[in-house]
Amino acid sequence: MPPPEAPGNAAPEGPFTVREIMETFRHRWLTILLVLCAVAGPGIWWARQDVPLYQASATIRLRDAQREMTGGLTGIGLGDVSGGVDPVRSQIEVLTSRGVAAEVVDSTPELRIETVNFPDSYISYIHFAPEVQSDSVLLNFNWNGYTASSRVGTSFAHYGDTVNVSGMKLVIRNRPGSPGVLLVQSAESAIDQLMMNLEVKPRQLTDVIDVTYTDPDRNRARRIVNRVVGVYQAASAAAAQRQSVLRRTFLENQLRYHDSVLNAARVQVSLFRGRQRALSTKAKLSSEQESLGQLQVQRENLAADRRIYQNLLTELRGKSPTDHQVGAIMSAPGITNNPVVADLYQQLTRYQITRDSLTTGRFGRPETNPEVQQVDLLIASAKSRLVGAVGTQISTLDSRIESLDQLRAQSSSSFPELTATEEQEAGLEEQVEAARVTVGQLREEYEKARLAEAVEVGQVEIVSPAALPKRPVGVGPARMMIFFTLLGLVLGLGTALLLERLNTSVRRRGQVGKMLNVSELAVIPPIPRRRRVSSKQRSRQASLALRNGDDKPVRLERLGDGLVVASDVHSIAAEAYRLLRTNLLFSLRNGSPRTVLVTSPAPGDGKTTVAANLAIAFAHQGMRVLLVDADMRRGRMHELFRISRDPGLSQVLMGEFALDGVVRPSPVTNLFTVSTGRLPDAPAELVGGASMRSFLDQATREFGMVVIDSPPVLAASDAAVLASLADATVMVVRAGRSHEEEVQATMEQLLSVGGKVVGAVLNDPEATVRAYGGYYYSKYYGKEN
Question: Do residues 295 and 407 make contact, with C-beta atoms less than 8 angstroms apart?
């Protein structure tokens, strides 16, 4: 077997594996069961006590029906509200208001009652007087009628008839059976309960609203939610009707008033025009303005003609007027229309043509020619007459212009008076027009109000009434019980897994070997309690002892509890010790060990029992075995074999006795024991001396195997000293109690002194390994063939 390596730190535990979960479930089933009962028990009780609730839902739509039915002529649309107000949310607040709930409760008396011992479906009619508050009525049902008793009195009625009691009118249609109680709550309490069970939710980005009511009775839930939306629709219609009536009345009064204002304004205009003796001052002013404009045009025309005549006169009076300039002036429309000037200009033109014909050409005459001079005289005379005519025309034009200026002055003097009169008339006409526009608008709104009043609908449309709910809301009692059961299992398993992770003790087969890097020599199962041995069993024990080399039967009554190899050779535990014996014999490469040290990390791990049973197993193999109790603090080997403590090992080490003086035979053949002896003051120094090595040398010469039971490693230093002297060291680890840190510390301490740790034994007195999925050796190996 290779030498063991130094132990390392345990690897951090990762996620839980399926095997780990199953092992935890088997090991900590009681914890899981307790948590399951703690969680599932109250949950299942609550689920069984829970009353199933039914939820009925109706769908309504908020719209302006008046606007739709009148083509948008009346009403205010839902989207016309400004100021950041959500109209749908506003309507929801109205729907869930206490006023609507109170109206529903008043119209639905069944909301105020609760029946005991009989269903409320037997009540066909119920009515409450306004003064009725909380009350209770005892109902006794007979074969021919029923009796209603309250604090006020008792009344009797036949089935189907009305009974009056405490301000209530009640009708029971037929006999329910056993007596019952009718509980009545106040209207305020009923309103609170209705508002609590009523749920209103708008659909996103729509004007559609879902109205839901929850109640233990599904028929009642449907009736109430339909009643709620019906009352809300009627209330909306009534409110719209009232608003339309108020608006129509207001507009009617306003229209009557503004009609009188319009008539008064028209009378004022008529009276004003009568005083001015004109149909319209504005028309008169316009006529005057038109005449003045005509005078201005005439004056401008006359002034233009005068300028033309003045230009002509200037040219004619010039020293040498040119014919071209004079001709251009004479072609003007103002001169051509004057016949005198035109005729004179034509004569002058003819005279000039005649003169030109006399003075020009091949046979032209000179200026002194009498004919030429005669023509010149005619030209001068014609020009003189033309100048006089032009001057006369200019004087005429000046007179006409002056007359026009006088007329313009007279017309302009009347303008301020006409303008003021026109402004007064315009003001009166504006009053008439304003009154007429106002009357027209009021008349239009009045017609809209009359039309809205005739429509008589609100903004609520019932899209779909509530249907009868088929199944209760929620998961139901069965699912709730399953849920709480699964929750209890999960929490229980989680608690168990958490406890497992927090528990660092050794609990599994193979865990010690992986942790310490050594062989796990054996797993010791629980040792059964000492049973009463019959004569037949004694004979079997004797025959087995003889086959193992014993020369006398084992006296079981003298051995202490736990020596299962001697007392119950067919048990699984005995087989485990025999396996330990075999593994130890082949644990070293250079042969079997002669001295075996059995130790453990802490007290109570079972090392003494393991050492004693191992020694008995070696003795059954035919070897001379010496079992030495080296635990000089709490040694108890003498108790197991019912021998005296003194003298013992301590007296040998102190030189008071020889080896032969302390060795005692045991009830098991080939097995001899050495007890601890008198407890010394310094056990570590005594064990660590040279006398201990001499003792072991002598023991190995006289015995084939020496098994040493040492103190726990972490409790005393004796074990480390003894480990350095022994051929092989076996560490006993107790399942479920020895922690990983303790086991690793023990291994490190043994290796630090040169101890030869050949393996570990997993002692499992409480069957921890079996619970964690380990296994033991079959009882088959303990049976006789």
Answer: yes
Q: What is the identity of the amino acid at 415?
A: F
Q: How many residues does the structure list for the chain?
A: 785
Q: CB–CB of 27/757 below 8 Å?
A: no
User: Rounded to an integer, what distance in angstroms lies between the CA atom of residue 557 and that of residue 671?
Assistant: 17
Cβ atoms of 312 and 335 closer than 8 Å: yes
Assign 5 to helix, strand or coil.
Answer: coil
The pLDDT, as a whole number, for residue 544 is 41
In sequence order, what are the residues at sequence separation of 6 or more whose Cβ sits closer than 8 angstroms to the Cβ of residue 89? 202
Q: State the maximum Cα–Cα separation within the chain, in Å, rounded to a whole number.
A: 214
Residues 6+ apart with CB under 8 A from 85: none
Rounded distance between C-alpha atoms, residue 270 and residue 276, angstroms: 10
189-234 per-position pLDDT tens digit:
989 988 898 889 998 888 899 999 988 888 888 888 898 888 888 8
CA distance to 260, 286, 418, 443, 618, per residue, from 729 (Å)? 129, 141, 143, 119, 16
Q: In 172-322, which residue ranges form alpha helices assigned H by DSSP?
A: 187-197, 218-276, 281-317
Q: Is 662 helix (H, G, I), strand (E, B) or coil?
A: helix
At 327, the amino acid letter reads G
Q: Would you state the structure tokens that stand for residue 693, as one six-digit string?
A: 């090595």
604 touches 623 (CB < 8 A): no
Using DSSP bridges, classify how beta strands 135-141 and 180-184 pair: parallel, antiparallel or unpaired: antiparallel
> Which value, in Å, is the radius of gyration of the alpha carbons in the chain?
68
Reading the block at residue 203, the tokens are 């659909």
pLDDT tens digit string along 352-378?
788 778 788 777 778 778 877 887 888
Contacts of 238 by beta carbon, 8 Å cutoff, 6+ apart: 458
Task: Give the tokens for residue 329.
Answer: 């002036």
- Residues 325-345: pLDDT tens digits? 566 666 666 666 677 777 777
Identify the DSSP state of 533: P
Give residue-wise pLDDT tens across range 25-52: 777 788 888 988 988 888 888 877 777 8
Q: What are phi and psi of 212, to 5 degrees?
A: -125, 140
Determine contact, residues 148/137, Cβ cutoff 8 Å.
yes
Residue 408 has pLDDT above 80, yes or no: no
Cα(11)–Cα(133) distance, rounded to whole angstroms? 74
From first CA to last CA, the distance across the chain in angstroms is: 34
Q: Which two tokens stand for residue 507?
A: 């609990």
566: left (phi over 0), alpha (psi -120 to 50) or beta: alpha
User: Is residue 70 pLDDT above 50, yes or no?
Assistant: no
Q: Does the pTM exceed 0.70?
A: no
**What ranges in 586-636 are assigned the alpha helix state H?**
607-620
Q: Assess whether the previous peptide bond of 179 is cis (omega < 30° from 0).
A: no
Residue with token string 């050492």:
611
Q: Using one digit for the tens of pLDDT, what is the confidence trace for 112-130?
A: 888 888 888 888 888 888 8
Report how far Cα 347 is from the mean position of its chain's Cα atoms.
Answer: 118
Q: What percent of the chain has pLDDT over 70?
A: 79
Classified as helix, coil or strand, 522 is strand
Distance CA 428, CA 273 (A): 11
Rounded to the nearest 5°, which phi and psi values hold at 497?
-65, -40
Amino acid at 419: T
Residues 6+ apart with CB under 8 A from 623: 670, 704, 705
